[in-house]
Amino acid sequence: MIDGFGRGAPGASDDTRRALVDLVMAATVRIHGPEHGYASERPGGFLGSGFFIAPSWVLTCAHVAMQGEGREVTVIFETGPGSGETSVTGTVVAALPEASHAAEGRPSTRSGGWPAPDLALVRLGRPVEHACVYVTERPAAFFGGGQVLYSGWTEVGGRLKRLSGQCAVQGTVGGWADPDEQMRLGGDVLPPGVSGGPTVDLARGEVVGVLKSQLVGGMGGTSIGVERLRSLPVPAAMAGTESDDDYQAVFHAHDRYHADRHTSRVGRGWTWTDVQSGLGAGADRALSPQQRVILLGALAKLPPPVSTHSLLDLLVRLPGVHSVDRYPAPRSWRDGLGALYETRGGEAALELLLRYCMSVIAAERPYVTQSTASAEEELWTWVKWTADDRLSREFRNEITRLWSASRHRTDREQRRAAPAYGERPRDGERPFVLLELEPRGWERDSYDWRVGVARHTGEVQPVAEDSRGTPGHALRARLTASLTEAFRRCDEPDSPAVLQVAVVQALLGLDVDSWQLSADEPPLGVVRPVVVRCSDHEPPASEDEARERRARWSRAWSAAMRAEIVDCEDGLRVPVPTEEDLRSLAYETVPVLCRYADRPDAETAAGLARVVRGGFHIALLRRGKDQPDVVCEDFHRHAVDTVAEAGTADRLPWKIHELRQGVRAGRAETYWSDGVALFYDDPLHPLPGSGQLLEAP
């Protein structure tokens, strides 16, 4: 096991502690409003604190940075003792959440009033020399407590002054998978203005959080873990350069900055690596602070992982690793390294790290630059040198074989097909996101919910849940962070994961596919396939019925499907056939309910129940107002053609997805499908607790 935040050496010298404070304060900045006056010489009003997280990048709170005019702020700092202040304009590149992401006007520019994670990234408008903090590579949830150092700016006697102090970690606010989780701090008064400043683990010498709020009328406040930056928006298409993804750009620059300063022969001051060594931060780890900073610098020279999903896939294929789905899930090579700190397995800690490095070398690349090959060589050289110094001949031979094999895998498809360890899941085994909504019968229009990632093994790994009851009008906003995290764990570039929405039969018309998780994003059904499934239908009444359901599902996957309109004839509404008549339909039939509507009446609900009991796991439901005089022939024609064009069951969700994209794009030939829902009750992935697993086709 690679142990994580051991408490460091208790006998660290006063010089070491003083050096840590100096490094933190040197990177702490003031955030002001935009500059005003002649030649932009006068900054606007003081808004709060922040700190340099990477060259030209400042991290602060959203409630601090978004008080500026538009997205422009002024960053003020000192480059060294007695150097005087430097003022530079910055732009808020990202705020979490954006004002448009949060619900019912919750964002507020009051301190602490912005909903968590309340983080903002500011990019400087011109190059300047400055110091940067060192940021931990694993979630703050694993921080074991103890004391933290904080730094910021506040007004003292009418003048703005920099200050630092210590707080005790007293626990958390929020649950293990709560997007609002925060660290509770106590033991010191956090004065106005320090919001946005860094929270530093005193024993390890690394930033673990950002000060969010002060406790009104009391001691302490709250801090947000820096790992919440992993929820920054993911590019819709595969990155072509490092700068296409702000998260990767920031942390690659961060790790290269610290590696360069550790290896540089220029300068006589303390580095973060020096301080971490003085604190004894490497005493219980497989790597010393010096080895770690060199490794992170080497990883930061490589293109990032293709996706979070591919990184998780790489990690769980390592020997002895079973699950690394932390909240938020790892996103970069440095995050993957941090995820291994808590892994327990039969492999030695250092061997596990080096196997991870070999998987990184062999991994698929989103893009390749002129320096990628030399970066792989550099990482291999470090791995080989480390293994030669400390590990067995057998292990050294293993990684040498992996290195030789990686030299023969040059193109993208070869890398995808031949990972360093284990086997990649087959195309049909991709994970999907499962959203379960359960109405609270004693509270009108109120729901408990669960969001999880469903694997091909049948396991559903939870992402978040809430059993306190969420009003129907607030569901979209309350679910945004959890759904976004779940999608990030499953999506591949240009290949979004399917969203399955499990609801009681009476709610199958719920238009989750029309939800927009933010004002600047298309509806969910346009971004990805969205299907509905029934959480309260009855299991098969007999083995014969179960066998028939298996046969229908298998046939729909192996034969060309065909649609059958079951509740409408010649433009007139008719009852859905009896179960016996439905069972007489060919196994590859997809029933179409033309008159389903948004809220089905008793007759329609009974008709769908007969369809389900008849053994059908797939059906098209036409939502919207049921208008008796509407002409249905065009809808019937297109529904039949669409099912035929999809061919087999695995393609139908994607076909409906294409139609929704067409409606959004204004393609008139797709308008007939507006409001169509796909009932897709996948028996290969039964809902948790249902016990209705069927055999694979």
Structure description:
This protein has a six-stranded antiparallel barrel with strand order 1-2-3-6-5-4. The chain has a six-stranded antiparallel beta barrel with strand order 7-8-9-12-11-10. The relative contact order is 0.08. It contains 18 helices and 23 strands. The chain is an alpha+beta fold.
Biggest sheet, strands in spatial order?
1-2-3-6-5-4
User: How far is the first residue's CA from the last residue's CA?
Assistant: 41 Å
Largest sheet: 6 strands, antiparallel, barrel
Rg of Cα set:
28 Å
Unreliable stretches (pLDDT < 50, length at least 5) are 1-9, 100-112, 691-697
Structural category is alpha+beta
Write down the overall mean pLDDT.
86
Task: Count the E strands.
Answer: 23
Query: Proportion of β residues?
Result: 15-25%
- In helices, the fraction of residues equals 25-40%
Mass-distribution shape = globular
Number of helices: 18
Question: Secondary structure elements and their pairing?
Answer:
Blueprint: H1 14-27, E1 28-32, E2 46-54, E3 57-60, H2 62-65, E4 72-78, E5 85-96, E6 119-124, E7 147-156, E8 159-173, E9 182-186, E10 198-201, E11 206-214, E12 221-225, H3 246-263, H4 272-278, H5 289-299, H6 308-316, H7 333-339, H8 349-362, H9 372-390, H10 393-407, H11 412-417, E13 432-439, E14 446-454, E15 460-471, H12 475-490, E16 499-503, H13 524-527, E17 530-534, H14 543-558, E18 562-565, E19 568-569, E20 572-573, H15 579-583, E21 589-593, H16 602-613, E22 618-622, H17 633-646, H18 652-665, E23 676-680
Helix pairs in contact: 1-4, 3-5, 8-9, 8-10, 9-10, 17-18
